[in-house]
Amino acid sequence: MNRKKKISDKIQQIIIDNPQTNYSLEWLNVENAGTKELDYLRQHFHFNFDHLKASMATVFSQRPMVMQQDNYLFLVLHFPTLSGKQIIAGEVEFFIGHGFLVSVHNNNLPALTDMFTLGKKDATGFLAYQDGSSAILLYEILDRLMKSCYPLIDHNSAAISKVDEVIFSGKQKEAVADLLTLRRNIINVKKIMQNHKNILQHLVDLRSSIVSQEQIKESYNQLVEHSKRIWEMLDNQDDLLDALAKTNESLISYRTNNIMKTLTVVTIGLYIFSFTINLIHNGGTERDFWLIGVLAVAIALALVFVFRRKKWL
Fold first, then answer.
1. Res 254: pLDDT
2. Using CA atoms, how far apart are residues 119 and 141, in angstroms rounded to an integer?
3. What's the predicted TM-score (pTM) here?
4. Phi-psi sector, 67: left (phi>0), alpha (psi -120 to 50), beta
5. How far, CA to CA in Å, does 96 sit from each of 34, 199, 228, 309?
6. What is the DSSP letter of 32?
7. How does pLDDT run across 161-181, given as a tens digit for each residue?
8. Phi and psi at residue 170, in whole multiples of 5°?
9. For residues 110 and 76, what is the distance between their CA atoms, to the nearest angstrom?
10. Starting at the edge strand that comes first in sequence, how are the strands of the sheet with 65-68 ordered?
């Protein structure tokens, strides 16, 4: 069974109780934490003030971190989330100790919010329900957050395919903006995920008085594999985007060269036309006008023929 409680508009609690065990696990979920919420956490759990300050809704940590205290582990992690067309970083802080887990975030990580909502209805499907281990509950949350990265990577893949179609449909200039957006998104996801492997590797060595070290190691190694797989996918997308960008530049350059060649033909024609007008103004006969006019047309046609023969036009 599980018991739920709304402590305030920003703090909700789930108590996960398994009647077959003597363990009880409290999951406290805090959204958009302010001074009032942090005071509550400090009074009830005696968390370090600096850790609480880092959990303020208005504070964004520039890097993930993991810090071990006497009675709890403090963890800051970033995960990618979609905001319009842009992928940005969503931050979550965890306080994990014996019999409790506190998650603090700004409600911009749907996978975390959805899992907590599911837990309020029925937590019996959680792995942590079997043994009441906060280390296993943390693994389940991180597993969902890691898996939420795959749809974003799929979103990038779909966008890459769309850009490919735009490029080869002759809309190279339109593709430039899409390529820049994709480049920014892939770089953002890489920046967000680059330190995950080291953090997760540290969590492999978590100790628990409830579950075996082997179970913890096996669980968190799966997260390390997720991290590696996501990084490989991002590398592949990065390479593909580089190839598309070079192709687009080549096509733009090709079109620019064609335009310059066409302008060259026009310039020569205008030069000859100007020469003819000057000749007439300087006393040339009507016969001279028609002779030079025919010669100008002949030269222009000859240039067009030569350029087409060489496939310059």
1. 61
2. 11
3. 0.76
4. beta
5. 20, 15, 25, 74
6. S
7. 888 887 777 777 777 778 888
8. 90, 10
9. 17
10. 2-6, 11-17, 24-31, 100-105, 86-97, 73-83, 65-68
